[in-house]
Amino acid sequence: GSLVGSLLMRRHSERPSGSQTIQPPTIQPPTIQVEQTLPVPPPRPARALPWVVGAFVLYGMSLVMGMNFLPLLVTKTLGGDTAQVGFLVSFCAFLEIPMMLALVTLRRLPSLSTLIKLALALFVVQFALTALAQGMAPLILSQVLRAAGIAVMAGLGMTYFQKLMPGRFTAATTLFANTTSVGGVLSGVVSGAWAQAFGYRSVFVLCAVLGLLAWGVMEFALRRRGDVAAPVLGAELE
Length: 238
Fold this sequence. Notes:
Elements: H1 2-14, H2 49-77, H3 82-105, H4 112-132, H5 136-164, H6 169-198, H7 200-225
Helix pairs in contact: 2-6, 2-7, 3-5, 4-5, 4-7, 5-6, 6-7
């Protein structure tokens, strides 16, 4: 019996065990697919941009020219003094700030292009009044018009360029600033020779002509290339 029992136990031990070794699951790392996207270029500038740049250069010429020759007109042509010059310049600067604030606080305004054309028209009238002035009263009125024009052109001109160049904030700001700089350089070249040949009063006639040309260029550009209605500080304009 012992022999038979030992043989059975030996034979049983040689059988394969029914238990299976559990292998830990293999964890595959997730596959991350990286999609390569090309940078989207900003939209193209408006087709009216070159014409608008030309209009703003003409405006810059007339602005700097009128500012430089107002003291000479008052003191040399009209027989005034430096105190009157100081009053006119300070009065204009004093009016610019509340006029700019008024543009910000008003809820609904015309389109930017309409406001800019209106400002250019104000400059034409302002220069004409200055050229025809025989005393202080017309000059004071002309400074009111000048302050209104500067409030629009300086306050909204940069926004207008940014709307003409969407997605190019820095380039639009630089281009706007350079139009006045270029206009100032050109005014220095032209105004001196013009005043020497035709007198100080005639300089303001030339400024009025330049302002009228700037208005005409804007009108031509907007009729041919389309208007630009843009918001001012988030308020939608129509």
